[in-house]
Automatic annotation (TrEMBL):
CDD domains: HATPase_RsbW-like. This is SpoIIE family protein phosphatase. The lineage of its organism: Bacteria, Bacillati, Actinomycetota, Actinomycetes, Kitasatosporales. It holds the Pfam family SpoIIE. SUPFAM superfamilies: GAF domain-like (SSF55781). The keyword Hydrolase applies. Residues 84-111 are annotated as: Disordered. Residues 393-622 form the PPM-type phosphatase domain.
Length: 632
């Protein structure tokens, strides 16, 4: 056996975490950052780590750090090593470990004559000389050491290294591995979340009398913190119900069921989970026949034990918890534990805490769903389902409303035909992005369509729309008094008449308080295509006028909202010193869709901060008319 040598060219990252409930979350973030950063890409090139390898590493380090916090409560050091390997293809040794069957080295070294594949080595060290957090193989065989069971299933190799002042558990994952039985779990968002849910805390040993109560006292706070982190941010109520089952079984119960309230006020069985998956079907059928009452008021209410819940017929204890958040019931959580006449008080108390977090997560998911539904309903009235096709004019639109989960904002657009030879287009922006602002956008778009189809030209459309907004604002002020807020509207509105003979199009347009449209010629010259005028809804008697231009074949008209021009990076705005013109000038020769995407990307790249306003871009490009070939 050759002498041991240090690993070459490996990348090492390390961090020290306090012995608190936040340590597992911090460890997961640390490892994920180390495995998705530039160092990992350089270390494993040309190999690219897949999501499964990253998820497995994050999953295992979460389990080890959680156990260290639960049992020892001391600081832990997490070390992540990226080992690029030496290009050999053969395995490490007959035992499958990185050191061969007779070596006892730690993860820092490998034998000189053992080929090394690219891999990830992660070490979790308990910074306490007398700690006995993790057991060895004998402890593993006695059914203890949940973290080591999982490591044994997922890791290519693992071990425990004892130092004079600390003890460390390490594991190694190959950068390229064959699939394992754990990889049958879905790679969807639900599948990944359930894998993490299964490692929040070790399963309490069953060989002792009521061991769950002892585990609750030690691991309850950390388990509760991790459960909160897992449930927070879930935006689907069925996902919340699924995660609740994975959290509670088998840690606190042998089986559980989650009912969710329906719109009619009844209860619908959303999820049933059992530690023995073969009993889930029978248990679901039994629970569907005997649901809990909808008006369940108190937590920890005893519930009759369903006979199909256990195969031995020994019975057990079942307890109901109402899912109440913000004074409203969102469902019921039912837990069952076999072989005990009554659940321990600590188990009931911890289950009640989890039920409160499940209820809050369901309430949040439902609120998100309601808001998304309202936004979609408003969108159907505010934005066109599709843009009209204009012969001889290529069109493109980019629309990004501001706000998470928002499908429509204060910006709006439209492009519609007026007979065979004329098309109308508009791009507008209402102050604000609340529901009231959204209602103004819907009013403006439909009123413009109505006025245009009645034969009103560009100037007349703007004057009549302005009159309607002023009248509505006056009526709102009379009803709401001081609570009424003025809603000013900026609008770019125009008409296009394509020339079927020579190509290009005649454009008549006006800009009412809106960022001026820009015209790009085939030679790269950029200039405003309209003159500035006042906002709509301010003055009762404005005098709007229209500008006319000929859009030659190959020329482009760029229309944007202030989400583009007023995009900030510190004190600077994107359109300072004609910044938007410079962007458009570089788009010579690009099609309408490419120009729209170039402007969108430049807007995002202008600042590292997220965009804080709605963003809309409309591009019209005159293209040569292709005449059909004549046949002799």
């Amino acid at each position: 056996m050759g002498a041991l040598i240090p690993l070459a060219r490996e990348s090492v990252s390390r961090t020290t975490l306090p012995g608190s409930v936040r340590a597992p979350g911090a460890a997961r973030a640390f490892v994920r950052t180390a495995l998705t950063g530039r160092s990992a890409a350089e270390a494993f090139a040309p190999i690219t780590l897949d999501e499964r390898s990253i998820d497995d590493a994050v999953l295992l380090v979460s389990e080890l750090v959680t156990n260290a916090v639960l049992h020892a409560g001391t600081r832990v050091e997490v070390v992540c090593r990226l080992q690029p390997g030496d290009g050999a293809d053969s395995p490490y040794g007959p035992e499958g470990g990185p050191y061969g069957p007779e070596e006892t080295a730690g993860p820092d070294e490998v034998p000189r004559d053992v080929p090394r594949r690219p891999g990830i080595v992660i070490e979790v060290a308990d910074l306490h000389p007398a700690s006995t957090v993790y057991g060895g193989p004998e402890t593993q065989r006695r059914g203890r050491g949940r973290g080591l069971q999982l490591i044994g299933a997922l890791a290519e190799s693992w071990g425990v290294t004892y130092h004079r002042t600390r003890k460390a558990v390490w594991f190694r994952l190959d950068a390229e591995r064959a699939a394992t039985e754990f990889d049958t779990v879905s790679t969807s968002a639900l599948g990944r979340e359930l894998r993490f849910a299964e490692t929040l805390a070790p399963i309490p040993p069953r060989e002792q009398r009521d061991p769950t109560a002892d585990w609750v006292d030690r691991g309850g706070p950390s388990f509760l913190a991790e459960a909160s982190e897992l449930l927070t941010g879930q935006l689907d109520e069925n996902m919340v119900a699924a995660l609740a089952g994975q959290l509670l079984v088998p840690r606190l119960a042998d089986w559980c069921a989650v009912w969710l309230t329906t719109e009619s006020g009844g209860l619908q069985l959303a999820r049933v989970w059992h530690s023995n998956e073969h009993r889930i079907g029978e248990l679901r059928t039994s629970l569907e026949r005997h649901p809990p009452p909808t008006g369940l008021g108190s937590a920890g209410t005893s519930w009759p034990w369903p006979g199909v819940a256990d195969s031995q017929g020994a019975g057990g204890s079942a307890v109901c918890f109402p899912l109440i958040a913000h004074g409203r019931s969102h469902g019921v959580l039912l837990l069952g534990r076999a072989g005990v006449p009554r659940m321990a008080e600590g188990v009931v108390r911890l289950s009640e805490d989890v039920a409160r977090r499940v209820a809050q997560a369901v309430a949040t998911a439902r609120q998100y769903t309601r808001q998304a539904t309202i936004s979609r309903a408003l969108q159907r009235r505010q934005l066109p389902m599709s843009l009209a096709h204009i012969p001889g004019v290529d069109t493109a639109i980019v629309y990004e409303p501001h706000g998470e989960g928002q499908t429509v904002g204060g910006d709006f657009y439209d492009l519609f035909p007026m007979g065979d030879r004329r098309w109308c287009f508009l791009l507008g922006d209402v102050q604000g992005s609340d529901p009231e602002a959204m209602s103004v956008t819907g009013l403006a778009r439909h009123l413009v369509r109505l006025l245009a189809r009645e034969g009103h030209g560009v100037e007349s459309v703007l004057n009549r729309l302005n009159q309607a907004l002023v009248e509505e604002e006056t009526e709102a002020a009379e009803i709401d008094g001081e609570q009424s807020r003025p809603r000013f509207l900026s609008l770019l509105y125009g008409e296009l008449e394509p020339d079927p003979a020579g190509g290009g199009a005649r454009c008549t347009l006006a800009s009412a308080g809106h960022p001026l449209p820009l015209r790009l010629t085939t030679r790269g010259a950029v200039a405003p295509a309209a003159s500035p005028q006042m906002l709509l809804g301010i003055d009762e008697n404005p005098d709007f006028h229209a500008d006319t231009l000929a859009l030659e074949p190959g020329e482009t008209l760029l229309c944007v909202t202030d989400g583009v021009t007023e995009r900030r990076n510190g004190v600077r705005q994107l359109d300072d010193d004609d910044g938007l013109s410079d962007i458009l000038r570089d788009c010579v020769g690009l099609g309408a869709k490419a120009v729209a995407e170039r402007v969108r990307r430049a807007t995002h790249d202008f600042s590292p901060e997220p965009i804080d306003d709605d963003l809309a871009v409309l591009v019209l490009e005159a293209v040569p008319t292709v005449e059909p070939r004549r046949t002799a």
